[in-house]
Amino acid sequence: MMTQTISMVQPQVHVLLCRYRELKDWTHDAMGATYWRLYWNTTPGAWIARGEQRLELTPERVVLVPPGPPLHTGNESPFEHLYVHFTLSPEIRTKDSRMYPIALRGGFQNRVKQLKRAVCKRTPSPVTDGFLVIHTIVAAMAQVPRDIWHPPARDPRIRAVQERMGRQRHARTSCEEFAKQAGLHPKSFSRLFRQETGLPPQRFHLQSRIDRAAAEISNPESSVDQVADIWGFSDRYHFTHALKRLWGTTPGALRKQLDGSDAF
After folding, report:
1. Closest Cα partner for 242 from 203, 215, 216, 200?
2. For the segment 86-117, what is each residue's pLDDT rounded down to a tens digit?
3. pTM of the prediction?
4. Spelled out in words, what is the top-level CATH class assigned to the domain 156-258?
């Protein structure tokens, strides 16, 4: 009897926001696109564009938007809009910034509609709804073309360091310490890490911390100073500088974008 094993990564999904709104005007000339978005409009009338790609948002499909260049949006009439903002672990990256329409059918269609009902209900169930939104994201991501992803690190030493970076909140670990964990000279480690991941080690570590700090920003009970401290930034100004450099926004602007009583 033949046994086969597939090689896989374990994606980490961090949900920043899930919301349903009725919108009359959705005109943006250069909307920041620093995290993943999942869009589903239950009524037609709106569109989204990036570069030469333009997609109509219709009830028949979900659109997945990866991080990338600014987005342009508009609408011809009022519409109803379900949207989810989320990040993936830094090692999971697309080769380009194309947007991906996903047809609504079968079980996926039922799950998306169930998510919409969950967002709209008066008495949310935080745990159940949290699982539902993550399941919806995963079901959509599983349907994008297989060849859009940067290949994951193949070297087990680099994968082990990536896992450590994903767990570690402070920034004091040097490249030399990461190299020691991998059993490599610092220069050899840096070269291999970049070859395997496409990013320098310290940039990967910073990006990982920024992604997780951004998820904390959506919590109104956490101040920007607290978030900066939790994720290893010396102060709010250091955190703001890093977020501005990597995401092109500030903690205050991000919190304003993610704020809303109709979100979970």
Report:
1. 203
2. 988 877 888 889 999 999 999 999 999 999 99
3. 0.77
4. mainly alpha
